[in-house]
Design brief:
By secondary structure, chain A is an alpha/beta fold. Helices cover 36% and strands 14% of the residues of chain A. Chain A has 15 helices and 9 strands. In chain A, strands 2-1-3-4 form a 4-stranded parallel beta sheet. Chain A has a 3-stranded parallel beta sheet with strand order 5-6-7. Chain B folds into 2 domains: 1-54, Roll (SH3 type barrels), CATH 2.30.30; 55-89. Chain B is an alpha+beta fold. A 5-stranded antiparallel beta sheet of chain B has the order 3-2-1-4-5, with no helix packed on it. The chains are: A alpha/beta, B alpha+beta. The interface between A and B is medium-sized, with 39 and 27 residues.
Amino acid sequence: MHVCGSHEWTITHFGIRTLLPENVEVRAGPGCPVCVTPAADIDAAVRLSMEGKTILTYGDMSRAKGSGMSLFEAKAAGGDFRVVYSVHDAVTMAAENPGREHVFFAVGFETTAPPTAYEILRGPPRNLTFLTAYRYVPPAVEAVSQSPDLAVSGFLNAGHASTVTGMKAYEPCFNKTKKPMVFAGFEPVDVLISVAMLLRQFVSGEPKMENEYTRAVTWEGNTRAQAAMDKVFDRVDGYWRGVATIPLSGFKIRTEFTDFDARTRFGLRETPGSEQFVPEARCGDVIIGKIDPPECPLYMKGCTPNSPKGPTMVSAEGTCKIWADHKVLASMRCRV
Amino acid sequence: MCLAYPGKVVELNGDFARVDFGAGTIREDVNTSLVQAKMGDYVLVHAGYAIQVVDETAARETLRYWKEILAAMPEDRAAYESQLKGGLS
């Protein structure tokens, strides 16, 4: 199993599953941050955009729906939202419009959290707050490895998230579960070599934490980025939409930076996690890697990239969108 | 979110860098505060920020290894293809 939408893209785009032996299956685990962003957070962002605040977020996030409209639809209804490429753009925009409240809807994994932490440490303009819904991947890998349903034999670890955290972030999980792990790059050859490395671990019976992506991943990772995150965020339990609440997998802005926390400024209450997917949609099962997209009754029937019914078909890192864009219509399970 | 692209630092301006991703794609304002990048370094850029410097030695070694694998393929290819044909029956 891998836990990264970018890996799923490489695997699907280059037809890697068709090259693998019959008894090897690579499943897409929970590697899509837009997909696992709680519906309640999307609803909060939409509500704020309709109440005169300018919501700023990445393009993908704007089309995902919570229990009602997406940000994109809210814009058509008079809500204020703009797409930004980076959190730095959000800072610039807020500084240029001092008379208006701006909220950066901060979605992503540990790859994306450090720049936001850095901007909060720098002291953003007073009219900018952050609605953070970041998720931390190592606890999700641990949760998935302990699921009897999924029966994961080993992990292709997220190469770029790991450049930030370092391999060391996975040591506790590895020691507990002893599942083979290879830190994998994103070129197709990286993925093939990583799968081969995992297969060798299975055959030898000696699970290890191995690094295929040596040009970018180290044991320590990016300590500057880690320090910024530690200063700004507390790690708390996080609800992964359609999956579960995973312990210590969420990032919450620390109280000393509460002035920049949208949840405090706008009195957003913590609501229990609820997935709010449309009836019959099996987004949650796709997100966790229990099923392939074609096993959802809506896939490429009611739900297509032009008319998405769930976040997995909206996001560039959603398994359904990746498969649909490549016109994959059949399940790709083990053939033995 | 693992979407990060390697690019070469061609200019440094305090906390920002001009990064060349090849094929004419250049970003003027990549924030380099989270890494220690020098001129000519390759960095991985994610959403406008450099998150890691690419280890050039490791990269060259990886490329050399891949070349070796690809060079070895023609002899293995015939054996592999006949194995495939057998498997499809």
